[in-house]
Amino acid sequence: MAAVEATYKEQAVLLGRHSLVGIVTRPPPAQQRDEPAIVVLNTGIVHRVGHHRMYVRLSRELAKSGRTVVRFDFAGIGDSKPRNDSTSPLMASLADIREVLDSLEKSHDVHKFVLVGLCSGADHAVLYTHMDSRVVGLVLMDPTLPPTFRYYVHYVMQRLKNVRNWISVATGRSGLMRLVSTHLINRMRPRAEVEGLNLQNLRFSSYLPQCYRAATARGVRMLAVFTSVSVRHTYKQQMLDAFPEASLGGQLRLEFFPESDHVFSGERERDRLRGVIADWLDSR
Amino acid sequence: MNPLFIGTATRRLFGLYEPAAASRGKPRAAVLCYPWGMEYIYAHRTMRQLASRLSAAGFHTLRFDYFGTGDSSGEADQADLVGSNSDVEAAMEALRDIAGASKVVLIGLRIGANIAVSVAAKHQSQVEALVLWDPIVSGAQYAQTLAEGSDISDRVLGEIRSLDLQSSLEGIPERSMILVTERLPSHEQLRLPVEFVQAACPWVEEITLSGALPVTAMKRIEEWLR
Fold first, then answer.
1. Looking at the domain assignment, is residue A112 inside a domain?
2. Domain assignment of residue A166, yes or no
3. Whether pTM exceeds 0.80
4. pLDDT number for residue A18
């Protein structure tokens, strides 16, 4: 059998002050390109390999094309030990990203990064990016989007088709009413800081548009990928409508995977995803 | 916790070694054998917890990814049962070297238990004890649950179909236990007593999402090994 790692090298590492467990995948030195390192974030509580091992294959393919890729576990997720302090889960994850970037900067002499995340991983990436100018790109798979007017129209149209929903509205138990009221209440209480925020209330928070705005103002490029079951995503242009002030048009590439579930269970979809990410990285 | 690669240049296996927190007398060591596929993803947290508990109880532990799975080298379509057996052998050898132990405990969950049985029967003299946690009793039945929409090749499905726990229990170490969190009628046919514990099934998605851990099962394993 030929050497399995002829075109890349993998190293098991402990990153940062909290010894976060990670894998650094690198091309041979002669093939190393002067490009940002790719840092892959956890999806929920699934450890760094990702669903269907999608991040392992992604890391190796990108390393074969000359890039350094790191996948790691947040503290308390996968193989990394939990923190012993009272930091909130969201703040801890953001601090972990900084620790990893600091650590890679020292150990691998890389100074620019692209963050990759699915679902909560995408949200962590967006929230972190505007705090650190070293992040120059984002790959966001099914990120959280705030509800838009057109989203509400789609949502209502869907709900009206079901008689049970009429009963819920009549009895005051409608999810729609809760959704709208939560939205309105949060609009009246805009949040300007990440402190106290969590991923559950992110969708209604004004903090999210602010993050996109700041990232685009800094020239961060973004690839946003949406699957068929993206949470609260009902039409293709929703991201542009959700963040109009962020002027995402020029820096954002949107890709849709209508055949894919949320975790890219199909091999063909995972293959296509890797191709899209590689193409986007090369298209700068 | 020490992340490391073991195995050979063509079959590099990612592993996590945790030294014994407190050990008295001869070093004791345990190799943990993961399930496959999505069961591996869902059970990962439980296996990490089990390793940490055993480490605190005085065991040097090593859990690792089979070739073609997790962070190990190889592609998913290269993973098979024959290879996974040899990976457990490599993990045993690595852990015995690191810990200075002459024997190891093998603990396997789901298909990891079936792999552990096979290796334990072959290397009895190197296995101190064997823990089979919710093993696959009938490979044919298990294969049916995998076949739909799975990426598993026909060759590997064939290997899985041929799994028969009852017949593979021949020649296992005297000190062996079967622990289950899910009762099945087929357990009654087994020649080893099956111990049931009320605990979450660690290999299913619901458990992962709810954050529940099969604490009673882990405690029972720890107790039994003392």
1. yes
2. no
3. yes
4. 93
CATH number at residue A245: 3.40.50.1820
Residues 217-246 of A with CB under 8 A from B: none
- CATH pick for B2-225 out of 3.40.640.10, 3.40.50.1820, 3.40.50.2300, 3.30.1240.10: 3.40.50.1820
Are the Cβ atoms of A53 and B149 closer than 8 angstroms?
A: no
At A102, which helix (H) or strand (E)? helix A89-108
The label of the residue with tokens 């009272």 reads: A86
State which H helix or E strand residue B218 sits in. helix B215-225
Tokens representing B14 are: 């990612």
A98, part of any domain = yes
Contact B71 A23 (CB under 8 A): yes
Residues A259, B128: Cα–Cα separation, whole Å: 49
Residue B35 contacts A, CB cutoff 8 Å:
no
Distance CA B124, CA B119 (A): 8
3-state helix, strand, coil in chain A (%, to 5): 40, 20, 40
Which of A3, A12, A81 is opposite residue B14, by nearest beta carbon? A12
Is A152 a domain residue? no
Contact B71, B63 (CB under 8 A): no
Instruction: Give every strand in the sheet of A252-257, ordered side by side.
Output: A9-15, A20-26, A69-72, A37-40, A113-118, A135-141, A221-227, A252-257
Interface size, chain A vs chain B, as Cβ–Cβ contacts under 8 Å: 63
Domain boundaries, chain B: 2-225
A1 shares contact with chain B (CB less than 8 Å): yes
Q: Do B44 and A13 touch (CB under 8 A)?
A: no
Q: Tell me the C-alpha distance between A225 and A258, whole Å.
A: 10
pLDDT of residue A170: 67
Complex-level ipTM beyond the 0.85 threshold: yes
Residue A171's CB is within 10 A of a number of other CB atoms, namely: 8
Residue A105 contacts B, CB cutoff 8 Å:
no
- pLDDT for res A142: 93
In terms of residue numbers, what domain contains A93?
9-146+206-282
Q: How many domains does chain A have?
A: 1
Query: Measured between CA atoms, how close is A32 to chain B, in angstroms?
Result: 21
What's the gap in Å between the CA of A45 and the closest CA on chain B?
8
